[in-house]
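chain and backbone:
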Amino acid sequence: MKLLKNVRFFTLLAVIFLSSCQQEKPTTTQTSELSKEQLYQDFEILRSTFLQANSGLYKYRTKESIDSIFSTIKKQIHSNMSYRNFYNLLWKVIDYTGSCHNTLRYPDSLDKALNQQKIFFPIPLKHINGKLFTNLKHDNIPLGSEIISINTIPQHQFSKLISNYVSTDGFNKTGKFASIDTDWLAFYIYLAIGEQSQFTIKYKSKESSIKKGILNAVNYKQFLTNYKSRHSKTYENRKNKDYNYRYIDSIQTGYLEVNTFALGGKNSDGHKKYAAFLQTIFTKLKSENTPSLIVDIRGNGGGNDPNDLLLYSYLTKRVFRENTAAFTIFQQVPNINYYIDDDAKELSNELREEFTIYKQGKYYQQANFNKVWQPNKNAFKGTIILLIDPYVASAGSLFASLVKSDEQSTLIGEETLGGYYGHTGHIPVSYQLPNTKLTLTFSIVDLLQDVKQLADQKFGDGVQPDIKSRQTYLDFLNHKDTQLNTAIEFIQKQQVLKQEKKFSGLYPFFGSCQYF
């Protein structure tokens, strides 16, 4: 299959797109030299590409609603549109379809020209419980100050504006708001409100009432310098390995971190090293009869098959597959003149080999390409706690959905941006629009994941936690891991309940004692 076949990966840092139809002064990112007809052509190429190649186009939306938004957006195209405005129109359609693998990228030359201009917001921000806080002491503005408004836009409205720039599976919102914390923030703000030479903010710190401040805009290099000095860096850098294991002696619990599944395919050295690591750890857990295991996949945006499924085989009691159905909608690469990957012939040949069962306009995967997995002989039998957050997607969220389906597991954290019941992934394809040179990337295999129907999982949700836990403002300031602490407290309570049950079993009359 294609070089990136079996790669299911998402990262907030790989996404470039825009929003807002606000007018802006001419810059190097104008499409003013392009006619309305040329913009129409790019739009129609995007539309026809999605219709012919995007198997998830109608996963969350009806055909009528997709047709309607295409029609509505086309009517808004006019001559002399800026890249920001034209991107906005295209992105509304792309994001509406609901897949975390959708991206739209600037041409490199325009991106570089824009980044050199002093038009960007200077301070990294932190989104906590619906509010915005400064993630850096900047001039006279204290660390942790609450942002009340930016350029007269109230913080809640501002957060919504700048969080539109990550496409998530289905109808998920947590992943969008999580993007505010990344080093793309300044670019997102530009996309939302356009070029600015200054920013007028209202803010308040713990020690003060609401104050007003003027911030001079900076170039992107300066914003990145500020971002590297952000307060939360200490906390975020605690997860600095691809995977790691340690034992928490105080609660007799194993703690396994798997921060990425991008470790290489099944024949790679990276996968073999990872497989040996898992075998060693789970053999040790079994031999020592460890009662509880915390598996931490927060920040795991996906990666290569079969790294996610291999880990799950150590955690489950059931026979499973990656999916119950997988399909694409083409075998021959469509719109070949605009396809910019160098594997069109190879991709078409491999699709004809794997996706051969044709039903109602869809080419379904042959069963022999969807391995049946057995539980590993060293599979963990005790209490399993899975830590998740909004950055978990693609192969990461597929893994989380499988774990969620098992009764012996408890998920703690926040809803993932990747879907519970399925996603569109596996094989990414890229097209360049001929006039604006925008690059559209999306994935072409739609999957139904091998999971149970659950009452707390609606279609279009990410993987929902059983116990919601997110970092508090004070924990942000003090670099504390709220979700891990929640897991530790949960295990401690379970241990107390187990001891009480054991005690009542030894002395049953205590449980039915009556007083007179």
The longest strand covers residues 422-432. The radius of gyration is 25 Å. Residues 482-506 form the longest helix (25 residues). Confidence is low (pLDDT under 50) at residues 1-8, 11-29, 509-516.
